[in-house]
Amino acid sequence: MRTIYLLISFSIYCLHVLGQTDTEIIYKSTSNNTYYMHYYSGSVFIGNNVYPLAGKENPLNWQDWYHFDWREVKNLSKYIEPYIGPYLKNIQLMEDNYFKTTIWIDLQGNLIYCEFNYPSKINIPLTVIEQIETSLKANGKVKVTPIGTPRNDMYYVQSCVFVDLKQLQSRLYHPVAPSWNDDIAIQLDDVFPTATYYTDYLNKRSYVSLCLDNKDGTTTTEENIYISGIGEAAFTLNLINVTHRDIILDLNQITVRLDEGGDTYRPRISSISINGGPRLDTYSQTEVVVEYDGGMVSITFYFDDILGMFGNYYSTYLGDYKLSLYYGNHNMFKHIIDVRYDFDYSEPQNATWYREGYIMFRYMYNRNKVGMFYNKATDTYFY
To answer: Does 203 or 226 have the greater pLDDT score?
Structure first.
């Protein structure tokens, strides 16, 4: 009966195939079980070689004598999906790709046998198939109810559990929005006084620091060189995904805030560059994906006028500005990691996360000193 059912199920599955393709049946063993594996037309059928209902076939159509709640059968998919999910990560799936499990249930509601059918391009280890079988038998309880008087010569009912693979893949691995809690590690790369200086002297100096507020209330910072000029600036951030799924960023949601004492400025981002690419005058590329498990996206932010000019352009005015980056209403630096010391994307829980961070922008206005740096200790300007 099991063989007949398999052939019928297999024939229905292959009705759309116009010509016969290669077919193969092999046997493979784990440390505890042996399974047959039937390959045909891009599909694989797998079942345990030990059939517990041998010699116990229903003489009549079980649907005329017993019924069960189909919703209970559908819910069995939760014992399948966690095992096959990891093998869907980097595979091209079609809309009609399913993981089909045919189940045999005894009249007490216990799952006693199952067969699996899925696209052979999904490379699921046999030991994982064994784990699914074990999980289903341990948890797959379905209430079977007789229709009228129970019969003594009936042994089982049958059904199928379907997992939509395309849907499961999308649910597990479709890029998600960032939480800005601990899913992205942010690293300050370089900050430059002007866009032209940025182009010409990419690797010459590190100009400003990333300040971090520690959990105990103290602040970690570095010495800063003052930046002179008329408001042009650029800085680069590396955003590193520390989760196991892709994260998608909507660049249109990113804004900047500068605080100096009680004053707050909100400079406009003039353009951006993604992964060292060309400057985009507008956010024509509105979304960027930061890939899972350590994937990184480098974004350079350019400002043509990070602060408006005021007062005497030829006098010296020094200002200390705390620069924060916002994603919608979320401060991207509110929960930040110092990647310079102990960051490992595979073990982010072992790194040091800070409760808040900001870029310390120390800006100096002097019209005659555009593009130069100022050393406050020696009161000198230099390139």
So the answer is: 226
